[in-house]
Amino acid sequence: MFETDRTPKRVGVVGLGLIGGSFAKAYADAGIEVFAADIDERAMNAAMAEETVAGPLDEATIPTCELLILAVYPQAIIEWVRSHEQFISPSTLVIDCGSVKRSVCPVCFSIAERRGFTFIGGHPMAGLQYSGYRHARADLYAGQPMVLVPPEIYDPDIILWAEEALSPAAFGSFSITTAAKHDQIIAYTSQLAHVVSSAFIKSPTAQKHRGFSAGSYKDLTRVAELNADMWTELFMDNADNLTEEIGVVITELGRYRDALSRGDEAELHALLEQGSIAKRKADGRYSDAREGGVR
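Structure tokens predicted for Prephenate dehydrogenase/arogenate dehydrogenase family protein:
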């Protein structure tokens, strides 16, 4: 069994973008010493000037950290673990924050098992349409969900350890899943939304919208201004799941188009009503009256 209190006294953060920077600020605000690594010297300098980061995360400080948070692109996560595995203490918990898990977790699980430290896949379900340390916030994760992906065979106490270690970030809930299930669901909840937003904004009408748009336009285009380097890597790592989800949307859009082309008002109404019901079901707000429930 692990100790009751596993809140770290020293944390290492790899990557000081929006995600890593927000973790760094949350831990620093909690009075926890933070060391960090980032290829962007400006982010490092800003974090150190603000006293969010105490110093560089390197071969001298890595072994002293009880928690390591890896908030970089998936392939960079693997490369960092491989190149620094010899410095990670067996008593350290390593959590990655990559948006895909099948490409990251198996490799890192294997390294962790060989080296004796603990690795858990993680994905904070929070973010902004903006990136970079300048947008990082200590409260970014407050009340938000966190997904954890433990090894296939694991001691349940490592989940309690992870939850305690992440407590300064103030997540509202934790979900435990597999790498495969994570990637399947995230293809829909995150990646598909970015693809649709990117496609939607390419209409020539977008350049003429000023004065004619409100909440719907803003909601659909919020994530269109994305980091193409990062999302290309994420989409390619999860291409099978994302392709399937895109196919569903294409099929459904075809049904709306066909109903409009035929002037089929009844079919269009049915499609719209089906979508409304699907939304309420997805949010847990729908019960079919024919089954004794209420709407």
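The radius of gyration is 22 Å.
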